[in-house]
Specification:
single chain, about 400 residues, alpha+beta, Gyrase A, domain 2, Alpha-Beta Plaits, Elongation Factor Tu (Ef-tu), domain 3, 6-stranded mixed sheet, 6-stranded antiparallel β-barrel, 21 strands, about 20% helix
Length: about 400
Amino acid sequence: MMQPHDFGFGTQIRKSPYFDATVRWGAKGFSVYNHMYIPRDFGDPEQNFWNLVNDAILCDVAVERQVEITGPDAARFAQMLTPRDLSNMAVGQCKYVLITNADGGILNDPIMLRLGENHFWLSLADSDILLWAQGVAVHSGLDVSISEPDVSPLQLQGPKSGEIMRALFGDDIMDLRYYWLRELSLDGIPLIVSRTGWSSELGYEIYLRDGACGDALWERIMAVGMPMGLKPGHTSTIRRIEGGMLSYHADADIHTNPYELGLDRLVNLDTPAEFIGKFALQRIRDNGVSRKQVGLIIDGAPLAGPNTGFWTVNKDGECAGKVTSAVYSPRLEKNIALAMVAIDCADLGTELEVVTHSGETRAMVAERPFYDPRKKLAAAPAPTPLQVNA
Protein backbone atom coordinates (compact mmCIF):
# COMPACT_ATOMS: atom_id res chain seq x y z
CA MET A 1 0.00 0.00 0.00
CA MET A 2 1.35 3.42 -0.94
CA GLN A 3 2.37 5.54 2.04
CA PRO A 4 0.64 8.95 2.43
CA HIS A 5 3.79 10.89 1.49
CA ASP A 6 4.82 8.71 -1.45
CA PHE A 7 3.39 10.41 -4.54
CA GLY A 8 5.59 8.55 -6.98
CA PHE A 9 8.11 11.28 -7.84
CA GLY A 10 11.84 11.18 -7.26
CA THR A 11 14.16 13.67 -5.66
CA GLN A 12 14.20 15.78 -8.82
CA ILE A 13 10.73 17.04 -7.85
CA ARG A 14 11.05 19.40 -4.90
CA LYS A 15 8.72 19.51 -1.93
CA SER A 16 7.67 22.85 -0.54
CA PRO A 17 8.26 23.86 3.10
CA TYR A 18 4.51 23.34 3.59
CA PHE A 19 4.33 19.88 2.00
CA ASP A 20 3.95 17.86 5.21
CA ALA A 21 1.45 20.37 6.60
CA THR A 22 -0.74 20.19 3.51
CA VAL A 23 -0.80 16.39 3.68
CA ARG A 24 -1.79 16.58 7.36
CA TRP A 25 -4.54 19.04 6.47
CA GLY A 26 -6.05 16.81 3.80
CA ALA A 27 -4.21 17.22 0.49
CA LYS A 28 -5.18 14.18 -1.56
CA GLY A 29 -3.36 14.85 -4.82
CA PHE A 30 -0.55 16.92 -6.28
CA SER A 31 0.61 18.09 -9.67
CA VAL A 32 4.00 19.48 -10.68
CA TYR A 33 4.72 23.16 -11.34
CA ASN A 34 8.16 24.73 -11.60
CA HIS A 35 9.66 21.32 -10.78
CA MET A 36 7.80 21.19 -7.43
CA TYR A 37 4.76 19.50 -5.99
CA ILE A 38 1.66 21.71 -5.72
CA PRO A 39 -1.44 20.49 -3.86
CA ARG A 40 -4.34 20.29 -6.32
CA ASP A 41 -6.92 18.29 -4.40
CA PHE A 42 -8.41 18.96 -0.97
CA GLY A 43 -11.66 17.23 -1.83
CA ASP A 44 -14.53 18.68 -3.86
CA PRO A 45 -13.21 21.53 -6.11
CA GLU A 46 -16.66 23.14 -6.06
CA GLN A 47 -16.58 23.26 -2.26
CA ASN A 48 -13.07 24.73 -2.46
CA PHE A 49 -14.52 27.45 -4.72
CA TRP A 50 -17.31 28.27 -2.28
CA ASN A 51 -14.82 28.30 0.62
CA LEU A 52 -12.81 30.87 -1.35
CA VAL A 53 -15.64 33.18 -2.39
CA ASN A 54 -17.59 33.03 0.89
CA ASP A 55 -14.85 32.77 3.53
CA ALA A 56 -11.11 32.22 2.97
CA ILE A 57 -8.63 29.55 1.93
CA LEU A 58 -4.92 29.04 2.57
CA CYS A 59 -2.98 27.70 -0.42
CA ASP A 60 0.56 26.38 -0.71
CA VAL A 61 1.96 28.24 -3.73
CA ALA A 62 5.65 27.78 -2.95
CA VAL A 63 5.86 26.69 -6.60
CA GLU A 64 5.78 30.42 -7.40
CA ARG A 65 9.57 30.44 -7.29
CA GLN A 66 11.35 33.76 -6.98
CA VAL A 67 14.05 35.10 -9.27
CA GLU A 68 16.02 37.65 -7.25
CA ILE A 69 17.73 40.50 -9.12
CA THR A 70 20.25 42.58 -7.18
CA GLY A 71 23.29 44.72 -7.90
CA PRO A 72 23.97 48.30 -9.06
CA ASP A 73 22.23 47.74 -12.41
CA ALA A 74 19.27 45.75 -11.09
CA ALA A 75 16.64 48.30 -12.15
CA ARG A 76 18.01 48.53 -15.70
CA PHE A 77 18.17 44.75 -15.95
CA ALA A 78 14.60 44.30 -14.64
CA GLN A 79 13.40 46.69 -17.33
CA MET A 80 15.31 44.74 -19.99
CA LEU A 81 13.18 41.67 -19.23
CA THR A 82 9.73 43.20 -19.65
CA PRO A 83 7.86 45.50 -22.06
CA ARG A 84 5.98 47.11 -19.16
CA ASP A 85 7.36 50.54 -18.22
CA LEU A 86 8.93 50.26 -14.75
CA SER A 87 10.19 53.85 -14.55
CA ASN A 88 7.51 54.82 -12.04
CA MET A 89 7.67 51.62 -9.97
CA ALA A 90 8.28 52.56 -6.35
CA VAL A 91 10.10 50.57 -3.69
CA GLY A 92 7.39 48.53 -1.98
CA GLN A 93 5.28 48.20 -5.11
CA CYS A 94 4.27 45.11 -7.10
CA LYS A 95 3.43 44.96 -10.80
CA TYR A 96 1.99 42.26 -13.05
CA VAL A 97 4.45 41.96 -15.94
CA LEU A 98 5.14 39.88 -19.00
CA ILE A 99 8.56 38.42 -19.78
CA THR A 100 9.01 38.40 -23.56
CA ASN A 101 11.58 36.92 -25.92
CA ALA A 102 13.07 38.52 -29.04
CA ASP A 103 10.00 37.52 -31.09
CA GLY A 104 7.59 39.12 -28.62
CA GLY A 105 6.51 35.70 -27.34
CA ILE A 106 5.54 35.38 -23.69
CA LEU A 107 7.95 33.36 -21.55
CA ASN A 108 6.21 34.01 -18.22
CA ASP A 109 3.69 36.35 -16.60
CA PRO A 110 5.02 36.90 -13.07
CA ILE A 111 4.38 39.45 -10.37
CA MET A 112 7.39 41.73 -9.98
CA LEU A 113 8.10 42.97 -6.45
CA ARG A 114 10.46 45.87 -5.75
CA LEU A 115 11.96 45.33 -2.31
CA GLY A 116 14.66 47.99 -2.62
CA GLU A 117 16.14 50.48 -5.04
CA ASN A 118 18.24 47.69 -6.58
CA HIS A 119 16.39 44.64 -5.25
CA PHE A 120 13.64 42.89 -7.25
CA TRP A 121 11.81 39.57 -7.16
CA LEU A 122 9.97 37.91 -10.00
CA SER A 123 7.26 35.66 -8.55
CA LEU A 124 6.96 33.15 -11.34
CA ALA A 125 4.38 31.24 -13.29
CA ASP A 126 5.44 27.82 -14.58
CA SER A 127 8.62 28.27 -16.66
CA ASP A 128 12.37 28.44 -16.05
CA ILE A 129 12.93 32.18 -15.92
CA LEU A 130 15.86 31.81 -13.51
CA LEU A 131 17.81 30.21 -16.37
CA TRP A 132 16.57 32.79 -18.90
CA ALA A 133 17.53 35.72 -16.67
CA GLN A 134 20.95 34.28 -15.88
CA GLY A 135 21.54 33.74 -19.59
CA VAL A 136 20.46 37.28 -20.46
CA ALA A 137 22.71 38.66 -17.72
CA VAL A 138 25.85 36.94 -19.05
CA HIS A 139 26.17 39.21 -22.09
CA SER A 140 24.16 42.19 -20.86
CA GLY A 141 27.19 44.19 -19.74
CA LEU A 142 25.25 45.03 -16.55
CA ASP A 143 26.42 44.59 -12.97
CA VAL A 144 23.71 42.31 -11.61
CA SER A 145 23.37 39.12 -9.61
CA ILE A 146 20.58 36.66 -10.48
CA SER A 147 19.66 33.94 -8.00
CA GLU A 148 16.82 31.97 -6.45
CA PRO A 149 16.39 32.99 -2.79
CA ASP A 150 14.98 30.85 0.01
CA VAL A 151 11.46 32.24 -0.43
CA SER A 152 8.19 30.28 -0.48
CA PRO A 153 4.80 32.01 -0.80
CA LEU A 154 1.44 31.10 0.64
CA GLN A 155 -1.82 32.58 -0.61
CA LEU A 156 -4.46 33.66 1.90
CA GLN A 157 -7.46 34.53 -0.27
CA GLY A 158 -11.15 35.28 0.17
CA PRO A 159 -13.42 37.93 1.72
CA LYS A 160 -12.39 37.04 5.28
CA SER A 161 -8.65 37.17 4.52
CA GLY A 162 -8.42 40.78 5.73
CA GLU A 163 -9.94 39.90 9.09
CA ILE A 164 -7.52 36.98 9.45
CA MET A 165 -4.55 39.20 8.51
CA ARG A 166 -5.61 41.74 11.15
CA ALA A 167 -5.67 38.98 13.75
CA LEU A 168 -2.19 37.87 12.69
CA PHE A 169 -0.46 41.21 12.15
CA GLY A 170 -2.54 43.91 13.82
CA ASP A 171 -4.51 46.89 12.55
CA ASP A 172 -1.65 48.35 10.50
CA ILE A 173 -2.00 45.63 7.86
CA MET A 174 -5.41 47.04 6.91
CA ASP A 175 -3.87 49.96 5.03
CA LEU A 176 -1.71 47.75 2.78
CA ARG A 177 -2.85 48.75 -0.71
CA TYR A 178 -3.59 46.50 -3.67
CA TYR A 179 -0.32 45.50 -5.38
CA TRP A 180 1.93 46.80 -2.61
CA LEU A 181 4.14 44.85 -0.21
CA ARG A 182 5.47 45.13 3.30
CA GLU A 183 8.31 43.46 5.22
CA LEU A 184 6.96 41.84 8.38
CA SER A 185 7.59 39.04 10.83
CA LEU A 186 5.27 36.66 12.66
CA ASP A 187 6.49 34.92 15.81
CA GLY A 188 10.01 35.78 14.64
CA ILE A 189 9.43 34.25 11.17
CA PRO A 190 10.71 36.65 8.45
CA LEU A 191 8.11 37.48 5.79
CA ILE A 192 7.17 39.71 2.90
CA VAL A 193 3.41 40.27 2.67
CA SER A 194 1.72 41.60 -0.48
CA ARG A 195 -1.87 42.42 -1.48
CA THR A 196 -1.79 40.10 -4.48
CA GLY A 197 -3.05 36.65 -5.44
CA TRP A 198 -4.37 34.33 -8.14
CA SER A 199 -8.04 34.41 -7.16
CA SER A 200 -9.66 37.74 -8.17
CA GLU A 201 -10.85 37.96 -4.55
CA LEU A 202 -9.55 40.04 -1.66
CA GLY A 203 -6.29 38.33 -0.80
CA TYR A 204 -2.71 38.35 0.36
CA GLU A 205 0.47 36.51 -0.48
CA ILE A 206 2.74 35.69 2.43
CA TYR A 207 6.33 35.10 1.30
CA LEU A 208 8.23 32.96 3.80
CA ARG A 209 11.95 33.88 3.87
CA ASP A 210 13.15 30.85 5.86
CA GLY A 211 12.13 27.43 4.56
CA ALA A 212 12.77 25.81 7.95
CA CYS A 213 9.73 27.67 9.33
CA GLY A 214 7.18 26.39 6.80
CA ASP A 215 5.36 24.05 9.16
CA ALA A 216 5.18 26.63 11.95
CA LEU A 217 3.87 29.35 9.62
CA TRP A 218 1.14 27.15 8.12
CA GLU A 219 -0.06 25.97 11.53
CA ARG A 220 -0.05 29.49 12.99
CA ILE A 221 -2.17 30.88 10.17
CA MET A 222 -4.62 27.98 10.32
CA ALA A 223 -4.94 28.23 14.11
CA VAL A 224 -5.83 31.92 13.91
CA GLY A 225 -7.98 31.63 10.80
CA MET A 226 -10.11 28.55 11.46
CA PRO A 227 -12.47 30.28 13.93
CA MET A 228 -13.06 32.86 11.17
CA GLY A 229 -13.89 30.24 8.53
CA LEU A 230 -10.45 29.60 7.02
CA LYS A 231 -10.02 26.27 5.22
CA PRO A 232 -6.97 24.66 3.63
CA GLY A 233 -7.36 24.76 -0.13
CA HIS A 234 -5.86 25.04 -3.56
CA THR A 235 -5.94 27.73 -6.22
CA SER A 236 -9.42 27.60 -7.75
CA THR A 237 -9.65 26.90 -11.47
CA ILE A 238 -13.30 27.97 -11.36
CA ARG A 239 -12.56 31.36 -9.82
CA ARG A 240 -9.52 32.16 -11.92
CA ILE A 241 -11.40 31.43 -15.18
CA GLU A 242 -14.32 33.53 -13.90
CA GLY A 243 -11.75 36.28 -13.38
CA GLY A 244 -10.15 35.79 -16.79
CA MET A 245 -6.76 35.07 -15.20
CA LEU A 246 -4.13 33.38 -17.36
CA SER A 247 -2.60 29.99 -16.71
CA TYR A 248 0.80 29.79 -18.37
CA HIS A 249 1.19 26.83 -20.79
CA ALA A 250 -2.60 26.81 -21.23
CA ASP A 251 -3.77 30.34 -22.07
CA ALA A 252 -0.33 31.72 -22.97
CA ASP A 253 3.01 30.33 -24.05
CA ILE A 254 6.15 31.20 -25.99
CA HIS A 255 4.11 31.40 -29.22
CA THR A 256 1.55 33.85 -27.76
CA ASN A 257 2.07 37.61 -27.79
CA PRO A 258 0.55 40.28 -25.52
CA TYR A 259 -1.67 41.76 -28.24
CA GLU A 260 -3.40 38.43 -28.85
CA LEU A 261 -4.33 38.38 -25.16
CA GLY A 262 -5.56 41.97 -25.09
CA LEU A 263 -2.71 42.88 -22.72
CA ASP A 264 -1.64 45.99 -24.61
CA ARG A 265 -1.55 47.87 -21.28
CA LEU A 266 1.50 45.81 -20.28
CA VAL A 267 3.46 46.90 -23.37
CA ASN A 268 4.97 50.39 -23.38
CA LEU A 269 6.62 50.87 -26.76
CA ASP A 270 7.04 54.63 -26.30
CA THR A 271 9.44 54.26 -23.38
CA PRO A 272 13.07 55.11 -24.21
CA ALA A 273 14.18 52.01 -22.32
CA GLU A 274 15.33 48.99 -24.34
CA PHE A 275 13.76 45.64 -23.56
CA ILE A 276 13.87 42.22 -25.17
CA GLY A 277 11.24 41.93 -27.89
CA LYS A 278 10.70 45.68 -28.41
CA PHE A 279 11.13 45.68 -32.18
CA ALA A 280 9.05 42.52 -32.64
CA LEU A 281 6.24 43.97 -30.54
CA GLN A 282 6.33 47.18 -32.58
CA ARG A 283 5.84 45.11 -35.74
CA ILE A 284 3.02 43.12 -34.18
CA ARG A 285 1.28 46.29 -33.04
CA ASP A 286 1.62 47.90 -36.46
CA ASN A 287 0.57 44.82 -38.46
CA GLY A 288 -2.20 43.65 -36.15
CA VAL A 289 -2.89 40.10 -34.98
CA SER A 290 -4.62 37.23 -36.75
CA ARG A 291 -6.10 35.68 -33.59
CA LYS A 292 -7.37 36.88 -30.24
CA GLN A 293 -8.26 35.52 -26.82
CA VAL A 294 -12.00 35.56 -26.06
CA GLY A 295 -14.39 34.33 -23.43
CA LEU A 296 -16.85 31.59 -24.36
CA ILE A 297 -20.10 30.38 -22.88
CA ILE A 298 -20.40 26.69 -23.83
CA ASP A 299 -23.85 25.10 -24.05
CA GLY A 300 -24.74 21.74 -22.60
CA ALA A 301 -24.64 19.93 -19.30
CA PRO A 302 -22.17 21.11 -16.64
CA LEU A 303 -18.63 20.05 -17.47
CA ALA A 304 -17.46 17.28 -15.16
CA GLY A 305 -14.19 19.13 -14.49
CA PRO A 306 -11.70 21.46 -16.15
CA ASN A 307 -10.36 20.53 -19.57
CA THR A 308 -7.06 18.67 -19.51
CA GLY A 309 -6.25 19.32 -23.15
CA PHE A 310 -7.01 21.87 -25.85
CA TRP A 311 -10.45 21.62 -27.46
CA THR A 312 -10.93 22.52 -31.12
CA VAL A 313 -13.15 25.52 -31.87
CA ASN A 314 -14.97 25.46 -35.23
CA LYS A 315 -16.87 28.06 -37.22
CA ASP A 316 -19.18 26.67 -39.92
CA GLY A 317 -17.25 23.39 -39.90
CA GLU A 318 -13.81 25.00 -40.25
CA CYS A 319 -11.21 25.13 -37.47
CA ALA A 320 -11.20 28.62 -35.94
CA GLY A 321 -9.04 28.12 -32.86
CA LYS A 322 -8.88 26.27 -29.56
CA VAL A 323 -10.30 26.36 -26.04
CA THR A 324 -7.41 26.79 -23.62
CA SER A 325 -9.24 26.71 -20.26
CA ALA A 326 -12.79 25.57 -19.53
CA VAL A 327 -14.83 24.79 -16.41
CA TYR A 328 -18.37 24.84 -15.06
CA SER A 329 -19.09 27.82 -12.80
CA PRO A 330 -21.64 26.86 -10.13
CA ARG A 331 -22.16 30.55 -9.31
CA LEU A 332 -22.89 31.57 -12.91
CA GLU A 333 -24.51 28.19 -13.66
CA LYS A 334 -22.71 28.13 -17.00
CA ASN A 335 -19.80 26.41 -18.70
CA ILE A 336 -17.23 29.16 -19.17
CA ALA A 337 -13.99 29.09 -21.13
CA LEU A 338 -11.05 31.07 -22.40
CA ALA A 339 -10.24 30.45 -26.05
CA MET A 340 -7.83 31.65 -28.75
CA VAL A 341 -9.74 32.15 -32.00
CA ALA A 342 -9.27 33.71 -35.42
CA ILE A 343 -9.79 37.46 -35.36
CA ASP A 344 -12.91 37.27 -37.55
CA CYS A 345 -14.53 35.01 -34.95
CA ALA A 346 -13.74 37.18 -31.94
CA ASP A 347 -16.71 39.57 -31.87
CA LEU A 348 -19.06 39.35 -28.91
CA GLY A 349 -22.06 37.17 -29.70
CA THR A 350 -20.32 35.15 -32.42
CA GLU A 351 -21.66 31.59 -32.46
CA LEU A 352 -19.06 28.83 -32.60
CA GLU A 353 -18.81 25.08 -32.03
CA VAL A 354 -16.50 23.46 -29.49
CA VAL A 355 -15.39 19.84 -29.76
CA THR A 356 -15.40 18.71 -26.11
CA HIS A 357 -14.66 15.22 -24.77
CA SER A 358 -18.36 14.42 -25.25
CA GLY A 359 -18.77 15.76 -28.78
CA GLU A 360 -19.43 19.02 -30.59
CA THR A 361 -21.30 21.66 -28.59
CA ARG A 362 -22.50 25.17 -29.40
CA ALA A 363 -20.72 28.13 -27.83
CA MET A 364 -20.93 31.92 -27.93
CA VAL A 365 -18.25 34.59 -27.57
CA ALA A 366 -18.84 36.49 -24.30
CA GLU A 367 -17.27 39.22 -22.20
CA ARG A 368 -14.32 38.27 -20.04
CA PRO A 369 -13.73 38.39 -17.12
CA PHE A 370 -17.01 36.60 -16.59
CA TYR A 371 -17.43 37.88 -13.01
CA ASP A 372 -16.46 41.18 -11.34
CA PRO A 373 -14.73 42.47 -14.49
CA ARG A 374 -13.30 45.57 -12.81
CA LYS A 375 -11.68 43.52 -10.02
CA LYS A 376 -13.55 45.48 -7.37
CA LEU A 377 -13.39 42.55 -4.93
CA ALA A 378 -9.62 42.15 -5.13
CA ALA A 379 -8.77 45.87 -5.19
CA ALA A 380 -11.19 47.14 -2.55
CA PRO A 381 -9.94 48.13 0.91
CA ALA A 382 -9.94 45.21 3.33
CA PRO A 383 -13.23 45.28 5.25
CA THR A 384 -13.41 45.95 8.97
CA PRO A 385 -14.74 43.21 11.28
CA LEU A 386 -18.10 45.03 11.38
CA GLN A 387 -18.34 44.92 7.60
CA VAL A 388 -17.35 41.25 7.50
CA ASN A 389 -19.98 40.30 10.06
CA ALA A 390 -22.74 42.47 8.58
